[in-house]
Write a structure and sequence with these properties.
This protein is mostly helical. The chain has 7 helices and no strands.
Length: about 170
């Protein structure tokens, strides 16, 4: 019962943070379809964690998982703007979910962190990319590669630790 509760809360936090600024849903939509979409999305993320993230995942597999999440969302095109979740929203959704699972000790360190405006500002990235508008991995990888360079100069072991230490609520 406790695990079910915490999983629902984590998913709620994940979708809220990933969808709030991204204008994901069409203005006219069936709320039953939205609920169904969220239930299916939660199952999709849980399956990814169980099948792929119980061991360390390569960057290439992780990028493919982000792309496949976007492709999966096409099944719900009638409620989603542009017919799917774009790469930027998909990366935020997957990376944030993985961050929570990692912090709970459920998975090893994720390969990346959730890319959004806050972390880009904290990293002092010269050109801030609108994560809600990312259509492919190009701008996303610019942020990740910049963070890898920053990581070399700091005491953290990996990108996830770096982001966790830079992240803070206002």
């Amino acid at each position: 019962m406790k695990e079910l509760f915490i999983n629902k809360e984590i998913f709620l936090l994940t979708t809220s943070a990933s969808f709030q600024r991204a204008n994901v849903y069409k203005k006219i939509r069936d709320e039953k379809e939205v609920k169904y979409f969220k239930n299916m999305l939660q199952g999709y993320l849980q399956n990814l964690v169980e099948n792929d993230y119980q061991k360390q995942v390569s960057e290439n597999i992780h990028l493919e998982n982000i792309k496949q999440l976007s492709v999966y969302s096409e099944n719900f095109s009638k409620i989603l703007n542009n017919g799917k979740l774009n790469f930027g929203v998909s990366q935020k959704l997957l990376n944030l979910y993985l961050k929570y699972m990692w912090c709970l000790g459920k998975i090893p360190t994720p390969p990346h962190f959730p890319v959004d405006r806050i972390i880009q500002v904290k990293l002092n990235i010269p050109e801030i990319y609108a994560w809600t508008k990312m259509e492919d991995e190009q701008d996303y990888l610019e942020v990740i590669n910049y963070a890898k360079d920053v990581l070399k100069e700091l005491k953290y072991k990996n990108l996830s630790e770096l982001e966790l230490n830079l992240f803070s609520r206002k």
